[in-house]
Amino acid sequence: MNQRVRPPPKGPKDRKIASWTQDPEGVRRDILAVARTEFAEKGLSGARVDEIAAKTSNSKRMIYYYFGDKEGLYRAVLEEAYARIRTFERSLDLGTLAPREAIARLTAFTFDYHADNPDFVRLVMIENIHHARHLATSSQIGSLNLSAIAMIGEIYERGLAEGVFREGLDPIDIHLTISALSFYNVSNRASIRQVFGHDMAAPDARARRCASAVDTLLRMVCR
């Protein structure tokens, strides 16, 4: 009687190949998630592709296949980080809200997003150390972030038309104020705690700062 011959069990190398061929986008997402943490914690110069490969169960060669080199991987991490916050912003459906409510909700969301995603803040800080040269070579960053200004511009124009917002403001200035209020609360946590003994990440302190950020924005844009 013929017996069915079973294939040998798959080893780690076989599983990597199967994952790559069956779910290439999943592999790419896995690499980006680990790389985001590594770059945020260690910076561009301190992060090592070997360590990223080991933590993703992918080969160094596979990472280079997807991203070209270490700087290409870092650029992709930045693009993914900006794409993520812009995607969440669009999900707020601010066009259905009155202008005052919309700008307040956007400010509160931005504040909370930064507080909940300190890796994003660290990546932006690191890229500023490099004078934004990786953002400058990205084909995606410009269009991604222009959508944020367009969103604020639409809210602002509605507010002007309804007579609730004051004239003479530039949407980029509104965006910069929202970003500054949100960014500082994360970027300076350690120094503020050391100098003043104040924990900006404590729930009550965070809630007060978020409310203050919303109030500041409304005072800036409203009549």
Automatic annotation (TrEMBL):
Pfam families: TetR_C_29, TetR_N. Residues 48-67 bind DNA. The keyword DNA-binding applies. Gene3D superfamilies: Tetracycline Repressor, domain 2 (1.10.357.10). Keywords: DNA-binding. Residues 25-85 form the HTH tetR-type domain. InterPro entries: Homeodomain-like_sf (IPR009057), HTH-type_TetR-like_transc_reg (IPR050109), HTH_TetR (IPR001647), NicS_C (IPR041474), Tet_transcr_reg_TetR-rel_C_sf (IPR036271). Residues 1-21 are annotated as: Disordered. It comes from the Bacteria. One of its GO terms (molecular function) is DNA binding. Residues 1-10 have a biased composition (Pro residues). SUPFAM superfamilies: Homeodomain-like, Tetracyclin repressor-like, C-terminal domain. This is Transcriptional regulator, TetR family. It comes from Bosea lathyri.
